[in-house]
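User: two proteins, same treatment. go.

Assistant:
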Amino acid sequence: MRLSPPRMRHPVAAGRRLTGLLMLAAFALVVVLVTIFILTAINRIADYANRLDDDRSRQTTAGALGTFESQLRATLNDYAAWDDAAQFVYAPDGEAWVKSNYGEMTVNSDLFDVAMVMDARRQVVMSYQDGQPAGWDPHDYFDASLWTLFDKAASAAAGSSPEATGFVRTTKGVAVVGVALVRQKSGDLDKPNDERRFLVFARHLVAAQVAKMGQTYVVEGLQFTSNDAGSPNKVEIRNVHGKLLATLGWRSRLPGNLGYHQVKPLVYCALAMVGLFFLLLLVSGSNTLNRLKDDEAAARRLAMSDRLSGLLNRAGFFAALDELVAEGRQRELHVLLLYLDLDGFKEVNDAYGHATGDQLIRGVAAGLKALVTADSVLARVGGDEFAVALLSFDAQQTAETLSDRILGFFDEPFVIGERVATIGTSIGIAISPRGSVAGEELVRRADMAMYRAKETGRGRADYYRPEMDAEREDRNRLEIDLRIAIERRELHVVYQPVVDAEGWGLIGVEALARWTRKGYGPVPPEVFIPIAESTGLIDQLGLFVLHRACDTLRHWPGLKLAVNVSPGQFRDPAFATHVGSVFRKTDTDPSRITLEMTEGYFIQNPDRARMAITMLRQLGVKIALDDFGAGFSSVGYLRQFGFDRMKIDKSLVNALDEGGRAVDLLQATVALARSLCIPVTAEGVESQDQAIQLRLTGCDELQGYFFGKPMLAEEIDAMYRGGRRNSN
C-alpha cells in the first residue's frame, strides 16, 4: 500500500507534462498563427506602400514632362510675342538681330538648343543648334509631327494663341518642340498670311536632364529605358500623332519592403512583446507614409513655385490666398492684399535683354522677401507683377507701413553687373474685412487699385474704392464708343494757326483730333487720347488725323502742316510705311509735313527712336521735338537726334509774365537751339507782350490763343484766303 501513491503520481505528472506540452503547442501554434497573421499583414502593407510609391513616381514623372514642355512654351511666348521681334524678324536688315537674339542663344542654354525662323511656306530663314548654324534640313532632322505643330500654329483662329508645342523625334533624340507666330506682345501683326514668319524652338531631353529630373522630383534611377510591356514602372513619351518616341523608367524604391525588413527581425526576436511589436509596426508604417507625404508635398510645392524668382507662382498664390481668407474668417482677422506692378521694367528688359530682366526680377524678389514678415504670402503672379497677402488686426496701418517700405525699397537703383537699372512700382491695396471678401474678388479689387495708382502718377499706392468699379465701367464704355467712332470716322480734325514771328503772318497749322461722343457731347483730348494709347487705338487715330489733315492741306498750298505723333505710334516698326502710304494716297509733299513727338520716348528707347527717325526722314518729313522744357530737356539728345525744329513748352512761355529768371531761362533755351542750328517754335502764346518777347529772344514761329484757337478748316481757309492773321 505504501507503494501505491508513487505509482499514482506518475500518470498525473505525465498528464501534466502532456497538458504542458499541449499548452505549449497551443501557445506555439497561437504564436505561429499570430506571427503569420502579422507578417502577412506587414507584407500586404509593404506591397501597398510599394505600389503607392510607384504610382507617385509615375504621376510625378508625367508631371515633370509636362513642366518640361510648359517651360519651353513660356520661353517661346516670351521670344515670339515680342515687339522687337515683330520689327526685326520681318525687316530686310534684321538678320543680325535674329541671329543674336535667337540663334546665338542656343549655346549652353537650359531653355532651348535649337532655334529656327521659318516663313509661311515652311522655308528656313535661320536655323541654329548649340550656338552654330545648323547644317541639316528640318524635313530630315525632325519627324512629321513638326509640321502638324507648324500647321496648328499657322491656322490658329483669331483671338487664340498662335502657338503649338509637343514632343518630336529628331536625329539627335527626343525633344520638346514649339512653333509660334512672331508677333507683337499685344498679339497684333499687320502681315498677310503668306508673309508671316514663325519661330521654332527645340529643347532636347537627354540622359543628363532625365537624371537631373529624377533628382529634382525624387524619382530614383529615372532614365530612358526600352519599351518593356511587362514593366509597370514607365512613362511613355508620344508625339502629337500618338507615335511612341521614348520611354522613361525608374527603380522602385520599395519603401514598404524596407519597412518590412526592418520590422521582421523584431517579430522573430520579440514575440512575447506583441504590443511593442504593433507599436513599432505603427511607427514604421507611419514613417513610410510620412516620407511619401513629404515627397508629394515637395512635388506640390515645386508645381506651385515660380522657377525664376523662387516665390509662389500664380496658382500657388491663389491657393494660399484662399487658405488665408478662410483663416481670416475663422479668427476674425482682416486679410490685406498688396498688388505690385513694376514701373519701367519693360524698358529695362527691351534695352538690356531678357537675361538682365531675369536678374532684375530675382533682385526684386529677394528685396521683397526681406521686407515682408515670415507669415506673409509673397508671390510673382505675372511677368512683372508681384503680390503680398497677410492677416492683420489693423489692416489700414499695416498697409501704409508696408507700402511705404516697399516704395522706399524701389527708390534705390538696382545694380546688375556693370549696369544700373532704375525702376519703380505701383501698388494696389485691397482689404477683406474678417475674410468676408473671397480671394479672387480681392485680387480683382487690388488689381483695379493698382491700375489707378499707375494712371495717377506711378510710384505710389492706392486703395480700392467701390466707385472704381463704376469708373472702370465708364472707361470701358468710353473705349468701346471711341473704337466705334474711329472705325466710322466720326472724329474730326481742327487746326491751330502757326504764324511767322516777324510779321505774324499765317505760315502753317497744327492738326489736332477732336471727338464729340454721341449722347454725351465733346470729350476732351486729355481724356480720350490716353485711352487710345493704352488700348492700341492710337495707331488708327493718328493715321486718321494725318490722312484727313493731308487731304485738307491740298487747299492751302502755301502752308505747312504739323501733326503730333504718340509714342505708341512711334514704337510700331511699320509706322514709316503707313505714313508714306498716306502721303501717296493724298498726293502730299512730305517736305511740308512736320511730325512732332515728345522727348520721353527718345530717352527711354534711343536706339529704336534713332532707327524710326531715319526711316521717316527718308520719306522727306521733318521731325520736331515737342514740349521742350517740360521734361528731361537733355542737350545730349538734341545733338544726338538732330531735330529739324524745337517747340518750347507753354510753361516756359507763361513764365515770361513773371520776368527775371524766366526771361533768362527762355533766352538760354533759344540760344541753345540756335547754337545747334535748330529753329524754334513757341507754343502757348496768349498775349502781345509774350509774342514780342519771344520774337526778340529768337523764336521764328509762334503759336497760341493770341493768334487763334484750334478751329475748323473753313476758318483757317478764310484766314488763308484773306491773308490776315487772327488776333482772337
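Protein 2:
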Amino acid sequence: MFKAFIISLPISDPTWIFFLVLSIILFAPLLFDKLRIPSIIGLIIAGIIVGEHGLNLLAEDSSFKLFGKVGLYYIMFLAGLEMNMGDFRKNQTKTFTHGILAFIIPMILGLITNITLLQYGILTSILLASMYASHTLIAYPIALRYGLSRQRSVGIAVGATAITDTLTLLVLAIVGGMFKGDISGHFWIWMIIKTIVLFFSIIFFFPRIARAFFKRYEDNVTQFIFVLAMVFLGAGLMEFIGMEGILGAFLAGLVLNRYIPQVSPLMAHLEFVGNALFIPYFLISVGMMVNIKILFSGINTLKVSAVMITVALSSKWLASYATQKIFKMKRIERDLIYGLSNAQAAATLAAVLVGYNIILPNHTHLLNDEILNGTILLILVTCIFSSFTTEYAARKMALSDVKINNEDKLPDRGPCIISYSNPENVSMLTQIAIMMHHEHKQNTFLGLNVIADSPNVARHKAIGRKCLTQAAKIASSANVTLTPIERVSTNIITGIIHTMKEYDASELMLGLHRKMNITDSFFGAIGDTLLKGTHRQIMIVKCLIPPNTFRRIVVAVPPKAEYEVGFYKWARHLCRITSMLGCRLHFYAHPHTLKYLEGFVAHKFDNINAEYSELDKWEDLLLLTGEVNYDCLLVIVSARPGFISYDSSFENLPHQIARYFNNNSLMMIYPEQNGDPLETPPSSFLASNHPERTKKVNTRLYNQIIKWINNQLKKV
C-alpha cells in the first residue's frame, strides 16, 4: 500500500518533473531577490541543487535537452530583439570604438592568460577569451530607474553590446563549425562564402517576409507563432551550413526588432513566454550540468575561476578607460559604461555550453568541467559587481552636474482619451496611442464610446462594448492601463467634449474609417463643433497598413507652428513613435520652423533617424504627393481658426487630402492651443513681434495656384 507513495530518485514521472521545475521557477527568484542576487543566478543555483551532482532530484532527460536548446535560442533572440539600433546610431564613432575595444582587449588578455597561466590549447584559449569579450546588460534597468536612458554613456554601452556580442558569436560559430565538418584547404573559403550568403539572406529576406506577413495577419497568436518560426528557421539555417544556431537566432532578433515595437502586445507575449518558461528551463538545465564538488577538488579549479573573473573584470575596465581617454569623457561616464558592460550572462552561457558539448578526438571536452564551473562563478560575480557598480555610478550621475539628455518631464495634465466607434480601428488606435506614451505608461488611457440617443441604442451599445473590450485586452497585453467609458448622448461630438472636460483630458485620438472620405460629414462635425469645444490636442488617424510596417513618417508642418503651446507635445509624440518603430521621420516645414524641430530632436531624441526639408509655402503641400508612398504615414499638422499658425488655406485641406492622399495612411493633428482665438493679429505678443508671420493668404490667389498645379499635374 505504501509502495505507491515511494518516489525513486531521480524523479522520472513527467507530471512530477514539470511540477518541480515550475516550483523552482516560481520560488527561486523570490528567494534570491531577497538576498539581492540576480534571478538568473538563483535559477542556476537551484539547478545545481536539484541536479545529479546535488540532491539528485532530477535527471537531465530529453525534456531538459529540448527546452534547454529552445531557451538558449530564445535568450539570444531576445538579446537581438531588444537591441535599440537607434542608440547605436546616436554616437556611432564612440559606440563603435568602445565595442571594438571591449572585444579586442579581453581577447588579447584572455589569450595571453589562457595560454601562459592556464596552459590551454589555442582553440580552447580563443573560445574562452571570447567569453570575456561578450557582456549582457543585466544592470540596464538600474539606469532606467535613475532616468539615464538618454545619457550618452548609456547609449554607448548599449550599442557596444551589439558589436561585442555579434563578434563573440561569430568566433563561437567559427570554432564550433570547425568541429562539424572536415577541415581541409577549402574549409575556410567555403565557410566564409556560406556565412556571407546566409547573413545576406537573413538580413535581406527576413524583414521583407515579416513585413508582408504583418500586413496581412494581425492576430496576436498567429504573429507569435510566425516570429518563433522565423527564429528557429534562422537557427536551423545557421546549423545547416555548419555554424552555431545561436548566431542565427541573434540575427533574427536584430532584423525583426524593426517590426516588433518594445511596447506592443506581441513583444509582451514574446517576453512573457520566454521569461516564464523557456529561459528558466534553460538556466535550470545549465545548473544541473555543474558539478560543485569540482570546485573543492583541487587548487586548479579555483585558479581557473580566479583567472577568469580577474581577466573579465580588468579587461572591461581597460576598455572603458580607453574610451574615456580617447573621447575625453568624464570619469563618472566611464564608471557607468564600465558598470553596464562588465556583466557576463547570455552570450557567455552560450559559448561555454557550445564548447562543453564539443568533444575532441581524445574524448575530452573543448571547454572542460573546470571552465564550466568557473563560468558559473564568473556569471555570479560579474552580475553582482555590475549591479553595484552601475547603482553607484547612476546615483552619482543623477546627483551631479553632468548634463543628462532626459526627455521633457513636463507631465500631461490629464489622461489621453481614445474614442472608439468602429471595431476595425480599435487595434490601430490603441497601438499608436501606446507608442506615443510608452515612456509614461503610468498615465491612464480612457477608452471612450459615445452612443447617439436613438432607437438603435442597444445595437450600438453592443458594438461599442465589443470595441472597448478589445481595446482593453490589447492595452493589458502591453502592460498598459486602459479604462473603458460608455456614454449615451444626444450628440456624439458633444458627448466627447463633455467627457474630456469631466476627466480633464490632455488629448483626444479619433479614428477615421478606412473607406470614409475625409470630406464626409464626420470631418465637418469636427471642424464645426469639436475644435471649438476644446483647445486640447486632437489627432485623427487612418491606417491602411499595420503601424509596425511603416517605413517612413512624413510630417507637413505649417509656418508659425513653433509659436503654439502644443508644438513640442506633438513633436514628442511623433519622435516616440519613430523611436519605437525604428523608421525614418521626415519633416517638411518653413526654414524658421525647421530650426526649432532640429534643435528639439537633437536634444531629446538624437537616436532617431530624422530628416528635414524646406516647405517654404504651405501651398506647396501638394508637392509631397511624390514623397508619400503606400508604406508611409503622412502627418499633417493643422490649427484652429484664429490662432497664430492658422492659415486660411487650411479650409481646402479636406479636399486636397481626399483627392491626392486618399490612398495613404494619414494622421491629422490639431495641436493644443490655449487662450482665445486671435480676433485681431496685434492682440498676440508673438504676433506683434512678428507681424510678417500673421499675414493671411489670399484665398482667390491660393485657388489660382491650386488650379495651376492641377493643370501641370494633368500634363505630366
